């Protein structure tokens, strides 16, 4: 760093699991973090899926640097074998961690722009010697301008779900039917949400963990409420890998979720509608909805539509930074080949760090879910490793930044993404030809497992 940035903090965007872990690692390195959270409390996004249970037990969802920070506060580590819900994760770990970080975390602070001081993205002169300027809008509408020595964007992708349209654009009529379309796993404990689906026909669009979770929940509701049925809308056909790794998954809870979705179909609580790429949503004469596919196929008699087709990064406030992003995934160019679902979908990726996350804009990093752009299967332990490596790089310890310090489990299945319309046997052949792997150093005595939110598709 140069004298122009001396004394300035490393600004972290987002007080979620990875943003808070980044702050803990930065403090451990003797750097000053400042975490800006758009919501009124820590982990706003996780609170949005508080009813969903993680795939991994407590033993695998606590960052080591964060635990060191929490221990002196009297924090008690939860039972390592228990599986928390998103709400548990917030109440028993994430909010206490934010509290332990104290003055390093600010709430109701939405980042609306990041740039170099006095330099738009065109200007080269002395660019790397300038601090970052960060524009922030408070909950009351007031604005402020902060300076930072580096920026670590851990804001995630929760606020920007993919639309229903198969071409990446909202389907015709999607906005007009907004009161009947949701983009989150329904919380059927909520009486109002339960009433929307009980005894109704709900289309569930998507093939990831979120869709599995929704199908399993609606199947349980169907056991209690006659007439409840799910129409599972898939853009491709059913193959051996559609339901994930099953019993071969190194995370049993993740494998069981896919099997629960399969059971929902086999027991008649859900009907699979394959090869259906939505182009339009139309109101029916009876007040219900009809989905229309690109080929003209129609599925009628729908009361609700739950769109779980993945997430995408919000890059709107980073337009003045020189980011090196893959033109398909919107992920860092060095990371993209490792996670490209057009090439492989084995449910894991070689751990990576600052080198793969770097951009032409020095000391600017996207970490966590946002670093994956539009790719699925992000794992929380991947994010913790990213945070550790980036903190080391910003502290000047490039040897530690380059070191790999964990291994990750696999789903037990390859394929499923692969070629757009290839037969199943082609999709399952040689799908995991990622670039050469770095040497992996396993922590602990057993396999590490990731935490998985419904946003991650893992």
From TrEMBL:
Q: Which SUPFAM superfamilies match?
A: FAD/NAD(P)-binding domain
Keywords for this protein: Oxidoreductase
Q: Name one GO molecular function term.
A: monooxygenase activity
Domain of life, per lineage: Bacteria
Zinc as a keyword?
A: no
Q: What Gene3D superfamilies does the entry give?
A: FAD/NAD(P)-binding domain
Respond yes or no to whether keyword Oxidoreductase is given for this record: yes
For this entry, the protein name equals Flavoprotein
What is the organism field in this record?
Kitasatospora phosalacinea
